[in-house]
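User: Please fill in residues for this 127-position structure.
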């Protein structure tokens, strides 16, 4: 089993920044070995892929969402995944989730590729 807990969300003005964290734990879960990802879900919309980082630290971004504003990173020693979000816009308002799978992931931008999810953290960007 894997437990994921996001933090760092909040209310911020447009143009501001936030850094989200996702703390991972599990008796048999070796964080450094697994790919991790961020998704988000805005009110009334489908959950969408934001970014992923593979175990080899390769990154995959949803360029339509990120547009060079977000950076995904991980600190394996701390079992933590991060999402640095800059130049935030009101359309970034959403619940942000981190996700992982203890099996090989094909198609990092698909929700179905992940079987462990955190409860999410709310990000609200005011105009």
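Assistant: Residues filled in for all 127 positions:
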């Amino acid at each position: 089993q894997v437990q994921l807990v996001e933090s760092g969300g909040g209310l911020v003005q447009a143009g501001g920044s936030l850094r989200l964290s996702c703390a991972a734990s599990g008796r048999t879960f070796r964080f450094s070995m697994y790919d991790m990802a961020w998704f988000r879900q805005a009110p009334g919309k489908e959950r969408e892929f934001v970014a992923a980082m593979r175990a080899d630290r390769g990154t995959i971004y949803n360029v339509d969402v990120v547009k060079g504003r977000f950076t995904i990173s991980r600190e394996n020693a701390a079992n933590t995944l991060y999402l640095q979000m800059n130049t935030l816009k009101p359309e970034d308002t959403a619940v942000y989730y981190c996700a992982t799978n203890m099996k090989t992931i094909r198609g990092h931008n698909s929700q179905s590729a992940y079987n462990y999810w955190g409860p999410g953290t709310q990000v609200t960007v005011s105009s």
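For context: The longest helix spans residues 63-66.
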